[in-house]
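As a point of orientation, let us examine one representative protein, giving the amino acid sequence and backbone structure tokens.
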Amino acid sequence: MIIEEAALKFGVSKTEIHFDGKILKTTDGKKEVSLKELSTELFYNNNQKQLVACESYCGEKSPAPFMGAFTEVEVDTETGKVEVKDYVSIVDCGTTINPNLARIQVEGGLLQGIGMTLYENVVRNEAGKLLTNNLMQYKVPTRKDVTKLTVEFAESYEPSGPYGAKSVGEIGIDTPPAAIANAIFNACGVRVRDLPITPEKLLSEINNLKNKSL
């Protein structure tokens, strides 16, 4: 479409247009226009016409991304409440093409993982009716529930991926359960092995530990 519009502007065929990614010029070099100038001209002078270019990529391989995570939690051994005070994750998703987009993608996955670990619980009654069917009962974390969240990238190059990239869509949700459970164990010496790690479950394990020490 870009080359077609430049050809229409200059009154030549598409084969007579050379485009280097920034400048469109005729093959004889007599006429040229920048991509910015062409898009502005079309938008303001041709009924807000917009230049659009689409491309897709479907890889034959799907190399796995990797992530390491470190978290600091605060455990109230009287109430069983767990607060995530700091969460740091290091991600290898190959070449990070768009760092800001990749970062917020991982942050969203981390919050989902934290929710799965500490809050979110599907409860049904004996008849199978869902009891946690609204946000009053089905708890999800907010940004305030995580004091500090840090995402950094350990870049690598994946030959089979576009521009050396690997996927980063779902890796964020994987690390919170193990990282938080281990941090809780480090804080108070008990392990809860089924999710979510609710205050009730944690208090039960703490009491079991106390009884064993008597």
